[in-house]
Amino acid sequence: PVALTGWLLAIATALAALYGLRGDIGGKHPSSVGVAALYNSVARSAWAGALCWLIVACVSGWGGFVNTFLSWSPFVVLGRLTYMAYLIHMCLMNIYFQSQDTLYYLTGFNIAVTFMAVLVATYGLSFIFMLGLESPMIGLEKVFLPKRRKD
Protein backbone atom coordinates (compact mmCIF):
# COMPACT_ATOMS: atom_id res chain seq x y z
CA PRO A 1 0.00 0.00 0.00
CA VAL A 2 2.86 2.43 0.75
CA ALA A 3 4.55 1.85 -2.60
CA LEU A 4 1.29 2.14 -4.55
CA THR A 5 0.31 5.31 -2.70
CA GLY A 6 3.75 6.79 -3.28
CA TRP A 7 3.67 5.98 -6.99
CA LEU A 8 0.16 7.40 -7.47
CA LEU A 9 1.05 10.56 -5.55
CA ALA A 10 4.33 10.99 -7.45
CA ILE A 11 2.65 10.48 -10.85
CA ALA A 12 -0.16 12.90 -10.01
CA THR A 13 2.32 15.49 -8.72
CA ALA A 14 4.58 15.17 -11.76
CA LEU A 15 1.65 15.49 -14.16
CA ALA A 16 0.31 18.51 -12.28
CA ALA A 17 3.72 20.16 -12.40
CA LEU A 18 4.13 19.33 -16.08
CA TYR A 19 0.67 20.29 -17.32
CA GLY A 20 -0.32 22.88 -14.70
CA LEU A 21 -0.03 25.80 -17.09
CA ARG A 22 -1.60 24.11 -20.10
CA GLY A 23 -4.45 26.62 -20.23
CA ASP A 24 -2.05 29.55 -20.04
CA ILE A 25 0.14 28.26 -22.85
CA GLY A 26 -2.79 27.65 -25.15
CA GLY A 27 -4.36 30.98 -24.19
CA LYS A 28 -7.84 29.48 -23.85
CA HIS A 29 -8.07 29.43 -20.07
CA PRO A 30 -5.59 31.88 -18.51
CA SER A 31 -4.93 31.45 -14.81
CA SER A 32 -5.57 34.10 -12.24
CA VAL A 33 -2.62 35.86 -10.65
CA GLY A 34 -3.03 33.85 -7.45
CA VAL A 35 -3.08 30.50 -9.22
CA ALA A 36 -0.08 31.44 -11.36
CA ALA A 37 1.81 32.58 -8.27
CA LEU A 38 0.98 29.32 -6.47
CA TYR A 39 2.07 27.26 -9.48
CA ASN A 40 5.33 29.18 -9.90
CA SER A 41 6.19 28.86 -6.23
CA VAL A 42 5.38 25.15 -5.89
CA ALA A 43 5.85 23.47 -9.28
CA ARG A 44 9.62 22.99 -9.23
CA SER A 45 9.64 21.61 -5.70
CA ALA A 46 6.75 19.31 -6.56
CA TRP A 47 8.60 18.03 -9.65
CA ALA A 48 11.71 17.44 -7.54
CA GLY A 49 9.63 15.59 -4.96
CA ALA A 50 8.18 13.31 -7.63
CA LEU A 51 11.68 12.54 -8.92
CA CYS A 52 12.84 11.89 -5.35
CA TRP A 53 10.09 9.30 -4.97
CA LEU A 54 11.18 7.66 -8.22
CA ILE A 55 14.75 7.38 -6.91
CA VAL A 56 13.72 6.11 -3.48
CA ALA A 57 11.31 3.58 -4.99
CA CYS A 58 13.92 2.24 -7.42
CA VAL A 59 16.60 1.95 -4.72
CA SER A 60 14.16 0.29 -2.30
CA GLY A 61 13.04 -2.34 -4.78
CA TRP A 62 9.62 -0.81 -5.49
CA GLY A 63 10.59 0.42 -8.97
CA GLY A 64 9.22 -2.45 -11.04
CA PHE A 65 9.43 -1.91 -14.78
CA VAL A 66 10.54 1.72 -14.25
CA ASN A 67 13.68 0.49 -12.50
CA THR A 68 14.25 -2.11 -15.21
CA PHE A 69 13.92 0.52 -17.94
CA LEU A 70 16.13 3.10 -16.20
CA SER A 71 18.78 0.46 -15.42
CA TRP A 72 19.20 -0.46 -19.08
CA SER A 73 22.95 -0.52 -19.83
CA PRO A 74 22.95 2.01 -22.74
CA PHE A 75 21.50 4.59 -20.34
CA VAL A 76 24.59 4.22 -18.15
CA VAL A 77 26.91 5.24 -20.99
CA LEU A 78 24.57 8.01 -22.15
CA GLY A 79 24.30 9.24 -18.57
CA ARG A 80 28.06 9.49 -18.23
CA LEU A 81 28.37 11.24 -21.58
CA THR A 82 25.59 13.69 -20.76
CA TYR A 83 27.06 14.45 -17.33
CA MET A 84 30.44 15.20 -18.89
CA ALA A 85 28.69 17.45 -21.44
CA TYR A 86 26.96 19.23 -18.57
CA LEU A 87 30.32 19.84 -16.91
CA ILE A 88 32.07 21.28 -19.95
CA HIS A 89 29.40 23.00 -22.05
CA MET A 90 29.53 26.35 -20.24
CA CYS A 91 33.30 26.50 -20.64
CA LEU A 92 32.95 25.95 -24.38
CA MET A 93 30.23 28.57 -24.65
CA ASN A 94 32.32 31.09 -22.72
CA ILE A 95 35.33 30.40 -24.92
CA TYR A 96 33.24 30.80 -28.08
CA PHE A 97 31.38 33.97 -27.13
CA GLN A 98 34.30 35.70 -25.43
CA SER A 99 36.55 35.12 -28.43
CA GLN A 100 34.20 37.03 -30.74
CA ASP A 101 35.87 40.06 -32.32
CA THR A 102 32.62 41.46 -33.69
CA LEU A 103 29.09 41.73 -32.41
CA TYR A 104 27.01 38.58 -32.43
CA TYR A 105 23.74 39.22 -34.22
CA LEU A 106 20.78 37.23 -32.95
CA THR A 107 19.24 35.91 -36.13
CA GLY A 108 17.55 32.54 -36.41
CA PHE A 109 20.29 31.22 -38.64
CA ASN A 110 23.11 32.40 -36.35
CA ILE A 111 21.45 30.84 -33.33
CA ALA A 112 20.86 27.54 -35.13
CA VAL A 113 24.42 27.31 -36.46
CA THR A 114 25.94 28.28 -33.11
CA PHE A 115 23.72 25.79 -31.29
CA MET A 116 24.72 22.93 -33.59
CA ALA A 117 28.41 23.85 -33.43
CA VAL A 118 28.43 24.05 -29.65
CA LEU A 119 26.40 20.82 -29.38
CA VAL A 120 28.74 18.85 -31.63
CA ALA A 121 31.87 20.29 -29.99
CA THR A 122 30.49 19.64 -26.49
CA TYR A 123 29.61 16.02 -27.12
CA GLY A 124 32.83 15.39 -29.06
CA LEU A 125 34.92 16.72 -26.20
CA SER A 126 32.68 14.95 -23.69
CA PHE A 127 33.37 11.64 -25.38
CA ILE A 128 37.13 12.28 -25.32
CA PHE A 129 37.07 13.39 -21.67
CA MET A 130 34.87 10.45 -20.72
CA LEU A 131 37.35 8.01 -22.27
CA GLY A 132 40.40 9.85 -20.94
CA LEU A 133 39.25 10.82 -17.45
CA GLU A 134 36.16 9.02 -16.27
CA SER A 135 36.73 5.52 -17.65
CA PRO A 136 40.17 5.09 -16.04
CA MET A 137 38.73 6.28 -12.73
CA ILE A 138 35.93 3.74 -12.98
CA GLY A 139 38.56 1.03 -13.56
CA LEU A 140 40.52 2.17 -10.50
CA GLU A 141 37.33 2.27 -8.47
CA LYS A 142 36.56 -1.34 -9.42
CA VAL A 143 40.07 -2.41 -8.43
CA PHE A 144 40.27 -0.60 -5.09
CA LEU A 145 36.61 -0.72 -4.08
CA PRO A 146 35.29 -4.20 -4.87
CA LYS A 147 31.55 -4.59 -5.05
CA ARG A 148 29.93 -5.96 -1.93
CA ARG A 149 27.79 -9.04 -2.26
CA LYS A 150 24.13 -8.78 -1.32
CA ASP A 151 23.17 -11.59 1.00
UniProtKB/TrEMBL annotation:
Residues passing through the membrane, by range: 47-70, 77-97, 103-133
Cross-referenced InterPro entries: O2_lipid_transport_reg
UniProtKB keywords: Membrane, Signal, Transmembrane, Transmembrane helix
The organism's place on the tree of life at top rank: Eukaryota
Range of residues in the leader sequence: 1-16
Transmembrane among keywords: yes
Coiled coil: none
UniProt-listed PANTHER family: FI21449P1, O-ACYLTRANSFERASE
Descriptive protein name: Nose resistant to fluoxetine protein 6
Species the sequence originates in: Plakobranchus ocellatus
